[in-house]
Amino acid sequence: MESSCSILDYVLSNDALDNLIQTCSCPQAFNPLIKLKHRRLLEGSCEKIHFSVDCIFNSSINVDLSNDILKTALLINADTNTLITQTVTYCVDKLWLGRNSDEVYYAINLFNVILEHYKREHKPLLFTGDDFDQFQGGVLKVLQGSVKPLITFIIVNVFPNYTCVCDQESKNCFLSKTFDFIKTEKKLEVLCMCLDQFIQPEFDRDDFNLLKCDDFWFLITDCIVDKRHYLQRQAMYLLGKSMDIILNSDNLSCLPQHLQTGANDMKKMWKNYFILLDVSNEKQLHIVEPSLSMFSSVKNLDFLWRSCLYTIFLNHSQNVVVYNVATFILQNETDWHNFSKIIVVLFSAINKNEYNADSKNVFQEMGVFCNKLDNSHFNILLSESLNVSWVPAAIWGLYSNVFNKATNFEIPLLLLENVIKKLKLIPHKFIRGGCIRVVLNYCTRNWKVDSLNDLLKMSLLLRNSDDNLFENFIKMNEEQIHLLSDELHKQIFDFVENSDSEDLERFTVGLKILQLIHVDLDFKIMLQSNTTNSEQLLMLEDYFESTDLENHLISKFDFVENIEHVATLLHLTEKFSSQKLLEKASNILIEESSHNDAQKILAFGVLSINNIQTDQFVQFYKKYVQTFDVKNERIVNFFVKNLIKSLSESCSIVDLEESVGILENALDSQNSVTITILENLDLILKHVQQNTVLRFMERCFDEFVILIKSDNCRTTTTKFLSQIFEPHLLENNDFCEILLQFSWKLLDISNSANSIAYILSEKLTHLVKQKPETGRVFVSVIVELILHGIVVNKSERVDYYVCQEIGVTLPTENNPNLEEISTRLWALESVLFLINEESPSSRNNTVGNFVSDLVERYMKHFSKRYFPDSQIHLEKLRILQTLMLLQKHVTEEKSTLIELLVDSFISETHQPSVKHLMQWLLILLINNDHTYIQNIEEKLKTIDNNRPSAVSGLIPVLYHLIVSQKETHWDRLIEVLLPYTMGAQFRLRVFSQVALLKLHDKAITAQKSEFLQKYQFLHTSLKQIIEATANANFDVTNIHHEFLDYFSLENSDCSTVFYKIPKSNGVTEIEWENLWAASNRHNFKYVQFDHCDNVKTETTTLKNRAVNRCNENIQKKVTPWKDLLDNPEPSTQTNDFILVTSLIEKPANLGGLARTCEVFGIKKMIMRTSKITLEKEFKSLSMSSENWVDISDVKVEDLQEFIVGVKKEGYCVVGAEQTAESVKLEQFEFPKLTVLVLGNEKAGIPANLIPLLDKCVEIPQFGMVRSLNVHVAGAIVMWEYCKQQKL
User: Fold this and answer.
1) Alpha helices, DSSP H only, in 517-632?
2) Which residues form a coiled coil (predicted)?
3) Summary count for the chain: helices (H), strands (E)
4) Is 867 left (phi over 0), alpha (psi -120 to 50) or beta?
5) Is residue 1137 very low, low, confident or very high in pLDDT (cuts 50, 70, 90)?
6) Sequence-distant contacts of 699-706: CB under 8 A, at least 24 apart
7) What is the rounded distance in angstroms from the CA atom of residue 1214 to the CA atom of residue 424?
8) Among 1203, 1131, 1126, 1113, which Cα is nearest to 1166's?
9) Rounded distance, CA 930 to CA 926, Å?
10) Phi, psi for 1258 (deg, rounded to 5)
11) Which of 551, 1088, 652 is nearest to 832 (CA)?
């Protein structure tokens, strides 16, 4: 360019130069011409001229060239205003109409040149109003949807230049519009990069200042609690910068109210506030929990800021943190102006499917918190609770504590109705009932009867939920209700004149109220009213004389026309019938041609109640019900029930078949008809010997399974199973076989249909007790019921705990927890009844069947690995528990059972509860049988030492068997176990040593002096070994548990087998917690428990946690992004260190090294392939550091070439390896340019690479292990390099 200008300067005169400038249209040629003009102008050898720069209004030109041209043109043009106007017009057009980001970027660069010109010339920016609005709107449009480099250019260059040259009014307007845009789009990065344009330290000036703008602070709080992490960081940065200005200012009077605390330690409060914000992003509990103590130091800040902290911490991933903060809020928050906001945040946080000490404590604190509320705030709390989709555990925890006896708030009836409506949506039936009872108990206790309307509404709520609560409520308020009885009496009679479905409910409950308070009513007038319907009469039948009711019903015969109206009349005649009614009905059927269909069906119904013969009933049914195609559910139900009643034992096979045919057709109708049939089968079952009935029962069984899957109807299940499990029915072998198959179908659906297994087990037990010989048919079913139960997941476990608490708080019969365990207890009662009540010969056969079935089920899980409280674990446990009850009566199966137990010890690994039952069972089965004892001794000698659990499991068995023998047998125990006492396997060594020491203690108790003298040296030696072995000492204190010393081996009662052993060995409490309560409830004869469950209702409170004691000395992580925001210049944190990891194979090691590289600012990391960064093992340790570290690929075979190359670039290549010439790490002085090569995890650095290394360094070691993990070694070397270079 300089040479071009020199040539042009030599050949061109001023006139010629001016002429070329004014006519040139090529930017590349134009630029040197105006440069020459500018130089001559500076030399004073020429004047400014008029010319156009249209050549640069083309975005295809290089942007740097056009910027250069425009800058020079502004200096030499005689009419800069025109030039500026043209440029601004072009730029604004492109801001709005640019086809792509390149055009916009080009235009905004030109515009920035104009701004820099004004800034350089110290002139005010002269824009027309339209240009001003167009420019501002165009810039905001660009910010909204452009690429990041363009946005960055505008923020870094255009913003500062524009605000510097425009007048204050325009600046305020521009900043205001920009902030509105930022607020709407949440573009906080704009504020972060040019915050000094928007905030001013002088608060008393009229300039635009975000620090005085409420919307700015509201935006900050919104973004701090936003789930987008980048917005949180930006908001925290802006808050920090803003508060730094505010806290260092002397005049705070102009600030918004929510920043004025009035406290002297404002700086300290905000310092702690920022520490809490920082810590909130940490997941590690050991970092977060101690910081919660600082909450008390910021509680004087405005609620706007406290609510931010609450929201962030209440959404923390650690529930302990959530409950801690929730407890703090409940104990300390008293800002009643923001009460609703507090409650909304709290409810959202504590709505968790959890049941533990922390969660219970929060809900207890919620109850204490309610004691501080007034009536209006309590109702607000209830209203807000309706807006949450509660999990069952949380809503129980909330309502069971807020509706406490310490308060007596009055709840508006409409709010109460909405609460009950909300509770009826809870999916868990038992928890739903518990919550409703808690609420209604509270309301009935505190309710004041003020008006009849409210009384009826409250009574409807109570009666629809719990009859007992309703009756107690009426009795409790009887005196006040008597005052309203006249008004209620009048309303009931008014109902007769004008009724609808809602009034019918009020009529029913009003009538019941008057009955409960013993108010006499005279309803005879209703019989004279043409508007009185049969539904009313059905409810009031007890109030009428029989003759009056009879005359009324007879009169109804003449007016009934619609079949739908017949249903209620039929049910009324079912309650009351007479000879006159029968005559009226008979006459209608005799003169049927003169009567309508409804009258004929009603007449048939009256006759059917009065025990007409089956054949006549079938004839009438076909003629009137089927012919008229009656669909009314209540009518069909009525006739089905009466058809079954008409079946006598003497009815003919034809009549029976036709009746069954009618019933089968009825099964195809609504569920209610099916339920009626299933609940009324007793008369049909009297004909069970008929094939027709057997086929019908199979159909009924299928219908029941379908019904129970869709609608778990407990009453129907109880009635149906009670009928089919009658002892006399099982005398029919065919029915017995059908019933057995049906029982298995029930078991298949029992886990999804509540109460099925429980009712089946109960009915089967009653059957066994009445007819023991039939019980043997159901042995396999009984075994399945003993093993019944599913493994509960976390959600079900929480429901279990809640049901336990409800059972204590509100005792009730249908607790699913009691039913679940009662299912097994009923089945066990059947087993024990059979083996205790039968003759010896029958007993042996029954025991054999049970043992065979139990062994078969055990073998299904043989050698399968299982975990604590898994399905296999619990089934094995229950099998062995049942075998323990049977062991006294086992004869023929004894050897098979012993072999199974011994093989199981040798081949399987067991949970402690299963192992202890197996040991106990084996001890009791073998007893004094020397043959089996010798077999176990031989097994112990031959078992592979690679299975120490097998040997250690049999040692306690052999010990207990031997000590019950004569002294001569004790020597054999020492002979067998002595080799193990000196073995290499720790567990076997300890078990053997303890067994021999226990044998010595037994000898002392039994005063076996000769034995003690013989083995005195052995005892002394073993005792010294154990005392000298610190690790063994710990195990010895618990080893006695493994020798079954925690219960009596002679007492195989239910409490020990089912309660003590599972509980002592950590089996889930679901398995043993309710045994006593369930057995006591059913008063079993054989399944009895002498322990008493102590349901844990107390909790460990959190009031003493550190949340209320401020401690500022907490662990605090570094937050590098803050430093990056404070220093917008390019980072200087990286160094000239290159790490080579191509020889390393394990992704976890590479992930850890990548994280270390990011922390220490390593320049580059070399891997064999960067695809490793996608692997799960890598990511588990890298913590996303791969996104910030420069990673390159160098294959292992290319390492030689790579090392040679970096050495040519001046790098010193260092290997982390122990060699003959390696130097100690602390003695080596690292050059600035260093490459570190790390070796393979096993082989280290290969021999072919070591000669290429400039130096090898080794890390000093002071222990016995030869080497460090490669990740750890690399981190140590990198730290040493950084320490030398940076510190």
Assistant:
1) 524-527, 534-539, 546-557, 566-575, 579-590, 597-609, 614-620
2) none
3) 65, 7
4) beta
5) very high
6) 699/664, 699/667, 700/667, 701/738, 701/742, 701/745, 703/667, 703/674, 703/678, 704/678, 705/745, 705/746, 705/749
7) 73
8) 1203
9) 8
10) -130, 150
11) 1088
What one-letter code names the amino acid at 10? Y
pLDDT of residue 14: 86
Q: What is the largest CA-CA distance in the chain?
A: 142
Residue 617 class from Cβ within 10 Å (0-12 exposed, 13-18 middle, 19+ buried)? buried
Give kind and range of the element (H or E) at residue 803.
helix 794-809
Report d(CA 277, CA 237) in Å as an integer. Answer: 11
- CB distance 1105 to 325 below 8 Å: no
DSSP helix/strand/coil, 533? coil
* Rounded Cα distance, 51 and 21, in Å: 7
How far is the C-alpha of 1025 from the C-alpha of 981, rounded, in Å? Answer: 10
Structure tokens at 569: 């009349």
β-strands 1212-1216, 1234-1238: how paired?
Answer: parallel
The SS3 call for residue 1216 is strand
Cα separations in angstroms, 494 against 490, 491, 497, 921, 1177: 6, 5, 5, 76, 79
Q: Can you spell out the DSSP letters for 283-328?
A: --HHHHHHHGGGGGGGTTS-HHHHHHHHHHHHT-S-HHHHHHHHHH
Helices (H), 611-713: 614-620, 633-646, 653-666, 671-679, 691-710
Q: Torsions phi, psi of 344, nearest 5?
A: -60, -45
Strand order in the sheet with 1212-1216: 1191-1193, 1164-1167, 1137-1140, 1234-1238, 1212-1216, 1255-1258, 1223-1224
| CA pair distance 950, 940, nearest whole angstrom | 9
CB atoms near residue 927 (< 10 Å): 10
pLDDT score of 367:
93
State the distance between the two ends of the chain, measured CA to CA, in whole angstroms: 47
- Degrees (nearest 5) of the Cα angle 1031, 1033, 1036? 120
Taking alpha carbons only, the member of 202, 220, 302, 219 closest to residue 259 is 302
Structural tokens at position 1197: 């075979």
Confidence of residue 913 (pLDDT cuts 50, 70, 90): very high
The whole-angstrom separation of Cα 1065 and Cα 1049 is 16
CA gap 714, 708 in Å, rounded:
9
Token pair in block for residue 781: 């079913």
* pLDDT for res 711: 67
579-590 and 597-609 helices cross at what angle (nearest 10)? Answer: 140
pLDDT value of position 350 = 93
Looking at this protein, which amino acid is placed at residue 1019?
H
What tokens were used for 462? 């109570």
The 3-state DSSP class for residue 1191 equals strand
Distance from C-alpha of 188 to C-alpha of 234, rounded to nearest angstrom = 6
Cβ 127 vs Cβ 169: under 8 Å: no
Identify whether the C-beta of residue 292 lies closer than 8 Å to the C-beta of residue 321.
yes
* Cα 648 from chain centroid (whole Å): 58
Question: Which range scores top for mean pLDDT: 358-362, 550-554, 600-604, 1185-1189?
Answer: 358-362
Distance CA 650, CA 913 (A): 59
Spatial neighbors of 836 by CB under 8 A, at least 6 apart, are 1086
Question: Residue for token digits 């038992």?
Answer: 430
CB atoms closer than 10 angstroms to residue 354: 20
Mean model confidence pLDDT for the chain: 83
User: HEC profile for 58-104?
Assistant: CCCCCHHHHHHHHHHHHHHECCHHHHHHHHHHHHHHHHHHCCCHHHH
